Every structure is written in structure tokens, then in C-alpha cells.
Amino acid sequence: MSEVVAVTGIAAGGDGVGRLADGRAVFVPRTVPGDRVLLRQEVQLRRSFARGEVAQVLEPGPARVTPACPHYVHDRCGDCQLQHLAYDAQIEAKRAIVGDALRRIGKLDVPDPECVEAVDEWRYRTKISLGVAHRRTPDGGTIIGFHPYDRPGRVFPLLDCQIATFPLMELWREVKERVALLPPALSRLTLRLDRDGGRHVIAESSGEPWLDAEALRGALSESATITCWWQPTDGAARVVAGRRTGFPATGFEPANPEMGMLLRAWVMDQLGELSGRVAWDLYGGIGDTAVLLAQRGASVVSVDADEMAIEWARTRDAPGVRFIAGRAEDVVSTLPEPAVVILNPPRTGLHWTVTLRLREQPVARLAYLSSDPATLARDLGRLAVNYRIVALRAFDLFPQTAHVQTAAVLERAE
Asked: What is residue 395's DSSP assignment?
């Protein structure tokens, strides 16, 4: 018999959470706090929790709204997780996700942080990565798009992503009409806009290089702004058509640049006087944070493992910054003693070598920028023996999704 569940919150990842009759927490996608839902009979039971799907919404919660994107409803698109939740409730959910992780995983005594609302709830994204499925039918065919959240092995054809910018979608509409010019063994396609007005098409495939890249580039409007990259499976991307220099499409930059800029500006305001001080910018990407530190008078060492990102960063007008291509954990022991450290690691968080260095030789101020509340909580918990949190704020870089960016500023405990 199907079970009725009252949804009480939003969990990390975006699923609603409630309780089964036996007391187990149950995670139910596409539900909101206040929903009373009838679950499908196929509930996946685990020892301490369960996963279910909605058969029927019996009573909608007050924050439930009609999703704007047809793909979200008809194709069960997994690229967004919260379009059915009113935006102010999305903000509250993200505050709770960050706060819960810091308390539960990091064992830190902190309240839910303030969450800065996005400048735009829609049409903010400057990068999309699309899955590919090749039909096994006599007439062949290739499907390029996103994955349904409940069938991640499948791909549905993308018509329009409503969180992507209009220029990015214009590029997609042109590219999808020329699929025959993409690599035949295509496994992933990424489209990206850069801050200099460039447009990038990154095709990932196995087998021979992308032979028709120049033909595709020439067929697109404003082809002078197009750069085509080929990324062999398990290999590094390289330019195969268009400019060989310029913005690196593989370099890290937030997919919501405007909100990323607001986040960095807030962090700078928390760091205090920097003039004449040595600052580390670890996992620094294309150098945006390093430039801001240098503008405030710091002597900066910026480290990133992406050689192309570092090569481009070195072309910037950034006196006072030394850019190093390498993994932070490999070079941290060789860097000059800092007064300030900025950390912006991947979702996996800090390498243990970096954590040890910061624990054994604490710095006056440390800022940690994170896109994963769980690894942020883990790392801040490890650093808590030498540091205390003095400022904490979340930023909604990714409206309509469950992703949240967090900035924590720490100072050395005396």
C-alpha cells in the first residue's frame, strides 16, 4: 500500500524530506515543505533512510509554484532541482542546507548564514555541458541534451535552457542544426561564453581528433568569435579551430559571473588591510581574486593546476602577482609565509596536505570559498583547532538549482 508523507524540509541535493510511518527519513524529489504527498509503491528502503517518488500531491505546500520550463515537467530535467519552489523559499532552503552541514558535519556552533539573492533568477548561466546519446536504430541519429533526474543514463533533446543566457542559447540553436559536423563518437558537448565576447564549443570524444571543427566554425554566425576545442576522453582539451590564444574555455570561472564578482567583493571587504602583506590565492583559476588582492596592495602568489588558465592569467595587467601552474598540495611548502590565504578548491575540498599546512602554521586571516557545503563543513571542522569563523555568507549563484556557494572568513585563534 502506498504511504502518505508530510514534507518538512529540503535536503542537500534539492529533494524534499519527510518521515515514513516507521520513522525513517524519506527523500522525495520535486516536493516542497508543507506538501502532503502520496508516494508510489516502489519506495527504495535503506537501513536508516528511504527514497520515494510522488504518485500524487494531496495538499500542496504554500511555496509550491508552477515550473517555468517545459523540460522540467515533461522531460524531468535533472539540471535544475528547485523550479517548483518559490524563489524566496529557495533562498531559505539554501541557508538551511549550509547551516545544517556546518553543524552536523563540521560540529560548528553557527546559525544558518544569510544568503545573498541572485541578480537574475533566470537567464544567468554562461556555460552548459550536454550529454549525448547515439540512437541504435537503422537511421542512426544523435540526441544532445540533459539527463532526466530519475534516469541519468538517458538523454532528452534540449530545446531551450531557461537558466542559460539568450546568447548561449542562440549558439546552441546554431550548433544543433549542424550535429553532423561534430565528432562521430561525441560523448559530451560544452558551450561557453567568455568575458571577452568569445564563444566556445568543446567537444569530448574518443577516437580520432575532431576533423570537421573548422567547417562547423565557418558555418556559425559571427564565426570570428568562435573557438572550437577537442577534448579526447581522459585527455586535455586543445584548440582545433579558431584562435589559439585568448580566454581558456577549460579554465574555472563561475557560470554566473555577475554573482561571482559580488562574492569576491564581499570577501575582499572582510579581509581588512592588505597593503604590503603576502597573500596566497590557492586554486586561483584565471586570477580574478589575485587581481583584487593586488589592487589592495598585497603581494600575491596565485596557484592553479590548470596550465592554460595560468598562461592566460599571466597576460593580465596584474603587477604584484606571481602565477604558478601546479597543484596546491605540491607547492604549498615552497611558498613565502602568508598573512592572508584565499581558498577556492573544487567540490572535493582541500587536499589534506594543504589543511595540515594551515593548521600547523596558522595565518592571520583565511577565506574559504566553497560550492559544496559538505566538504566546506568537513574542512572548517578540521581547521577549527586553530581558527574561528568571523564572517559567513551564502550566495545564490545558481537559482532554480540546489547548488549554493558559500564564503567563510576565519581568523587565527589566539
From this structure: E
C-alpha cell at position 198 = 568569445
Distance CA 404, CA 338 (A): 29
Residue 396 φ/ψ, nearest 5 degrees = -90, 85
Nearest CA to 409 out of 384, 386, 388 is that of 388
- Helix (H) / strand (E) element for 142: namely strand 142-146
Contact at 8 Å (CB) between 279 and 338? Answer: yes
> Which residue do the cell numbers 563518437 mark?
185
Bridge partner list, 59: 36
pTM: 0.94
Contact (CB, 8 A) for 5 and 19: yes
Question: What pLDDT, on the 0 to 100 scale, is given for residue 135?
Answer: 80
- Angstrom distance (rounded) from CA 360 to CA 9: 39
pLDDT at 319: 93
Averages of pLDDT over each 10 residues, the chain, 414 residues:
90 97 96 97 92 97 97 97 98 98 98 98 97 75 95 95 98 96 96 94 94 97 96 92 89 90 97 96 96 97 95 92 97 97 97 97 97 98 97 98 98 90
Closest listed residue to residue 401, CA positions, set 13, 114, 43, 65: 13
Sequence-separated (6 or more) residues with CB below 8 Å from residue 114: 95, 393, 394
Among 366, 352, 403, 379, smallest CA distance to 98 is for 403
Q: How far is CA 327 from the centre of its chain?
A: 20
Angle at 406 between CA 400 and CA 407, to 5 degrees: 150
